[in-house]
Write a structure and sequence with these properties.
about 260 residues; 5-stranded antiparallel beta sheet; 3-stranded antiparallel beta sheet; about 35% helix; elongated
Length: about 260
């Protein structure tokens, strides 16, 4: 029988003895120095805390620019029964139109299409060539105020189709408008954030991220109708009035509060 009055002897392994001894030393040092240990936040934990305290807002900006140039596409269309005759007539009239445009010092003059196509008739399940259509298309740029008289002169030279007219602004004016639209988008985003935070009795601290969603150059403004041109009268000039191009920008901000 074991005598309970005798003291119990506990044997510790060397490794565990060292751990207990180290813990005792650290506790004694802490008490002696008066320091209190606090949890250490890792960078990941701090980043997560920052994201939890952010507001994301998207602002919009829009600036209109007056157009000053017209991008014009003119065509010469000819029909006939003989392919060679049709092609010669297209070439003759197109050459006259191009020479006229060059004499008026238009910009970016180029040929954008040449076609010669047969026309068919269908009867009793059979097709037969009955004629040909030929066309030639040129495009160019010209100041808007000069476009009307040039169109009239082009008709007299042989053009009989307007394929399209688009109004465009100067590149420098569009870039200035783009910068202004970005500034407006930023101001709009900040105003939204201030309104929301003020309603919650909070205040903005700093901007964490900035994202430009888009501030691209706008598409040219098309003329609202496609016209087939008739012979112009010397007493009248075709009136042409340009429109405006609108530059839009969008910016997203993440704001810490």
């Amino acid at each position: 029988m074991m005598d309970s009055s005798r003291p119990r002897i506990t044997t510790l392994q060397p490794g565990r003895m060292a751990q207990r001894f180290s813990a005792a030393l650290l506790a004694s040092a802490a008490l002696a120095s008066g320091f209190v240990f606090t949890p250490v936040f890792t960078p990941t934990a701090m980043a997560q805390e920052t994201l939890l305290r952010t507001l994301t807002v998207t602002g919009q900006g829009q600036v209109s620019v007056q157009t000053t140039k017209a991008q014009v596409s003119l065509g010469v269309d000819v029909q006939g029964t003989d392919a060679a005759t049709v092609q010669r007539e297209v070439a003759r009239r197109s050459t006259a139109v191009v020479e006229l445009l060059r004499s008026r010092n238009v910009e970016k003059l180029e040929t954008t299409g040449v076609q010669l196509n047969p026309q068919y008739t269908y009867e009793n399940g059979r097709s037969e060539v009955v004629g040909y259509t030929g066309s030639n298309t040129v495009s160019f740029q010209v100041p808007t105020e000069a476009m009307g008289p040039i169109l009239d002169e082009a008709v007299n030279a042989g053009a009989n189709q307007i394929r399209g007219i688009n109004f465009i602004a100067e590149d420098a004016a569009l870039e200035t408008a783009r910068q202004q639209a970005l500034r407006e988008a930023v101001n709009d985003a900040q105003a939204q954030a201030n309104t929301v935070l003020s309603a919650l009795n909070l205040g903005p601290q700093e901007i964490v991220t900035i994202q430009i969603n888009g501030a691209n150059m706008p598409m040219p403004v098309p003329m609202p109708r496609r016209a087939e041109m008739a012979s112009a009268s010397a007493d009248y000039s075709t009136p042409v009035i340009g429109g405006e191009q609108t530059v839009q920008a969008s910016v997203t901000l993440q704001i810490r509060y």
